[in-house]
């Protein structure tokens, strides 16, 4: 009895406890599945709570009259959010998306620099080194360096040295674009068998729905046998499924299938974007950007069939006037260079856009604004279902410019029209110059009383929208902009001009295989011809020569000089462009007729005062700068180059660069080898085979000789160079074996001294001053400098800092910063000097034979100006390479109360008179209101 009681107590207690536990579990399951099923269903569908960044609208750019030059538009975007739940539908979903985009006339957003058919990289730069750097960064970002590092340094631990990194980079560059493409296809598993595997997993859950998709996508005939194979996979245990899957893939040839290249690359674009954005946390992948509103609605209606796809909006940078103002506006683009620096500033380098050139780049920090963000709930499909919080983005500052949109448009349209006319009608000038390559030009207009830039044109231009609006930069457009076929261009260029040069001479091939346009023949849309092109000013420099002569007292305001046509002092031989003498001319007439002989004589008189006398006056007017001025500038906000007038030091610097290489060639031919017709000598060029010590010695010799050529101030020059020559010969095995004697060293020193003296002789030639006096020779300036020079004559000698920007405004329209006119220099001129030069420039437009009379004589507003024909290069180079003189004009208006100064240049335009229509168009636009009151018949603007 006791045993039975004991047994019942033990087991009864156990079963009672288990019963209670199971009862509680059943009750709880009932609560979960019935009462709270909807609540937990919703909880289960939530995969993340995350923050989605909201880009800030970029600050608008407006002109002086509040006309919009750059703004933002709301753009519909198609985005993809991948989750663990929807990733198995990737290929199926993307196929539907691609088909819908194509049927609605849309394109997938393609920012991937790796292209196919043919395989190539397309980086947004013309610079070969930059392309190389971007290619390395592209491959490193995708981990292609890892296999190389393991192969080269299998036991490496810790950071790589700079030398090791260079080794890896060298190997990375050996991976071809095609190899890179195939490595990424493998890395992202973009092949049909991966798609098939995902679909087979779907078949296990929904066989009836998935079966027709499988047969259709893989072009497999629907048979009982195939259906049975799939069912076998569906019903098998997990440990057996891989074997069955491999069997099906092999039997039906799925392992040998490949996607069509175009479709494969679309998958690759999406996968690659996901990979790149994974480094910056959660962010949806943009599939289509700037899609039409109707397309957005089509997708919105189909979202349930497209797991992970969503439609949203974001601001897109938009330039409503297309090319207008591209020379100063610049453009924005996705981050490619300096990605680490942008990361430190809080940019998302995988998707953010930044200013790349022009004002967009210079004032990036002011224009970009502050990002916002949304805290959201995502469901298992990766779609936003609830917004929990928001941080509003704050727009960038508004940039108000001094630019006048109407003046800018008039200048651009007139420049395009005038260049086309010159191309269509070459050889119509009195001397038959060939203007068929008048494809590049610039125009600048300045407020003479403030330094505000009213217009700044560089042609050819470009449409900034092709970079900010996704899909606009096609492969064809990319090639024309960043990878032009110089060789093909050269063939037509040479044939049309019957030139005796080769394509290699015009466009030499660099070590990296790229070509260089050494003679500035090919039109470059991204090169700013207004701020960075150096041009000989031609006769537009003559007012400066007149100013220097009058101010120095070597020329009287009413003095006349007889035009003898050919100037022959000091062995120089220069002539006037006119073919018959103009007789005795005063400064006004000399400027009006652009008489060379007159200004040769003034140049000679200035030469007698000192070789740099003319240069010193040019420097005061911003045409060059003294050598002790670091980083001279006009003040313009965007990048510029700064040209220089002829002066002794600059000429020595230039000549020394030429003479030292001629010297090195002579030193290689130092002595004749006995019993042969060959020569041997001292090799001072740095070679890859030289030891570090020999390279150092050669560099020291070079620096010493150059310094002596330029400044003649090297202590103990002869002994120093002799000693270094002996040392470099001794330590260089190839030269040491030749047993050079002291006599050979002396012969070498004689050649070195000859070169040093030749540099000085070149710099001190009187002809340099004569050439400079008429704006040729070593005078090279930018159109911006020349426009400012004209403005200084107009306002009486005040050099203002040039400004594109007038002020910055915040989002509410409050002034944040305003730029006031700033004087950089003031030249005190004699009243009679200013009067004579101004009258001479007015005579250019008003005299019957003035070089600007045909365009300006009957213009209701009196103008002052100067035309010029600027030689590209002398000594026959211009003719040999098919170039011709550039046409240049500088001027201002009104003559009696100046407001606006102008410079126009057309490269290969032939003569200054040919560019006058552009200047007139600028004046018409600027004075439009006043001219309209006079019932003026506008010739160049609407």
TrEMBL record:
Q: Which Pfam families match?
A: PBP_dimer, Transpeptidase
Penicillin-binding protein transpeptidase domain ranges (all copies): 441-634, 772-924
Residue ranges of every copy of the Penicillin-binding protein dimerisation domain listed in the record: 54-388
Keyword field contains DNA-binding: no
Q: Which UniProt keywords apply?
A: Membrane, Transmembrane, Transmembrane helix
Question: What parts of the sequence cross the membrane?
Answer: 12-31
Report if keyword Protease is assigned. Answer: no
Organism domain of life: Bacteria
Q: Which family does it belong to?
A: Belongs to the transpeptidase family.
Name of this protein: Penicillin-binding protein
Supply the source organism for this entry. Clostridium mobile
Q: What is the lineage of its organism?
A: Bacteria, Bacillati, Bacillota, Clostridia, Eubacteriales
